[in-house]
Protein 1
Amino acid sequence: MTLIEVVVAVSLMLIIFLGFFGAYVASADLVRSTSARSGALFLMANRMEYIRGLAYGSIGTVGGTPSGSLVASEPRILNGITYTIRTTVAYIDDGANGAGAGDYKTVKVEADWNFRNVSQSISTVTYVAP
């Protein structure tokens, strides 16, 4: 009778500890994923602030339309994670004013990274007027 009680007790404890271990692994994974996303947000915000500090005429990508001083794509490493930061600049024509093309520019900054062999991406957009 005692041996059966010990086997049942050990089995119950094993099931409980496996549940705790699974919850620990899932929460650690969530923390790493959130940290990677926060790093991407930091890099994008840093890039946007840099762009907002530029003169209107120099906001554009090297070799792009509009032409400017920004690099279209660059790799960045933060906390051991490799991000690809892409910047896209385009002219926007506001048809309401009838002034023609290039009334203002739209700037899109994207961050791509891999987490557990799954590609993740996030982007932000701002508008820049002369």
Protein 2
Amino acid sequence: MKPLAAERVAKAEGDLRTAERELHAPEHPNDDAACFHAQQRAEKYLEARLSESDVSFPETHDLGGLLDLVLPLEPGWEDLRAELNARSASAVEVRDPGADAEDTRAATATARRVRERVRASLGLEG
């Protein structure tokens, strides 16, 4: 794997650990932070896939926009569009009050699906 793609995967895994910790926190989970880190995880994994194929991309939190760039490489990933579009706002909007446990579960589930697809595409184990 190319170094920049590997770096993005490593950073995504760090976001994974943070989101999962908050998701399973026994007391006072920080749903806003969990949603933010889940969004970041999906973003970094999509960027890793693009980096591996030398596809340039803008600095953005728009997961749907990143998906548009990935689709020529992975056309079967179109089914992720609705949930990625729903999670794009988590990079900014969750900094305001409002995220709850349901949002956290949905955001982490989306991030897990993106992780599975990208890792499989890059030939990485689960």
